[in-house]
Amino acid sequence: MSINRREFIGAGFSALALLGTPAAGKEEKARAEAGTPAAQPTRWAMAIDVRRCLELPGCVKCVAACNRAHNVPALDDARHEVKWIWKQRFEDLFPSSGASLADAFKGKAIPALCNHCDNPPCVRVCPTQATWKRADGIVMMDWHRCIGCRYCMAACPYGSRSFNWVDPRPHIATLNPDFPTRTKGVVEKCNLCEERLAVGKPPACVEVCPQKALVFGNLDDPDSALRGVLRSRFSVQRKPELGTRPQVYYVI
Amino acid sequence: MRDRPLILAGLLIFLVVITTPFWYDRAAGMTAKGPEPKLPVAERRCVEATAYMRASHMDLLVSWRDRVVRQGETTYVASDGHHYTMSLSKTCLDCHKSKADFCDRCHNYAAVSLPCWDCHVDPSLARRAVPQLARAGGAGPRGSGR
Question: Are A136 and A12 in a shared domain?
Answer without folding.
Answer: no
